[in-house]
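[stage:ingest] chain + small molecule (FNR)
[stage:ingest] validated
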Amino acid sequence: MHKILVLVGSLRAGSYNRKLAGALEKIAGDKMSFTFADLGALPHYDNDLWEQPPETVTRFKSQIEAADGILVVTPEYNRTYSPIIGNAIAWGSRPPRESAWTKKPAAIAGTSPGAIGTAAAQALLRSVLVHVDLKVMGQPELYLQFKQGLIDDDLQVTNEGTREFLASWINAFDAFIGQSKN
Ligand code: FNR
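[stage:predict] done
[stage:export] tokens:
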């Protein structure tokens, strides 16, 4: 079973991206175990904090190190990924030469009520994840336009085509992690 650290880029209780991550967890079943990083607990990035790093930061870095794969599920804010995702990437990448991201398999997903389903945000995020030397899955991509009721309160995907697509996407990510270990 692959251990996945999940970074959800929205803090709001009714987040569509949190729902999408929950639906993916359900679809993954016993292929993957999901741990949701507490991005809201991380302080704003401040280099001075490394003198005595907060427990939330050291825990986050340990969670990255323990994971077989990283899943980033981001909303699109003003055509880019959300600030808590950028903050988390910064914390994981430091101090110099002690980045926790190096060579970890990763995948990007996201949903928005907008028609392009976070495509603009994901394009920018991909370049940053490659920069911090994560191994980012290229295909398939997961852009999802969120419609009311698409994911119900039990985190079931109500549209059959979308459910099948998400299942195939999870299978591809699982296989990508397996290949990355070789
Ligand atoms: C948005 N939203 C948005 N949507 C989009 O498709 N493209 C965009 O560029 C933006 N820009 C944007 C900026 C800011 C500051 C906010 C708060 C929102 C709308 C966004 O997709 C919507 O609020 C989602 O519901 C956010 O995701 P969660 O919180 O539901 O996961």
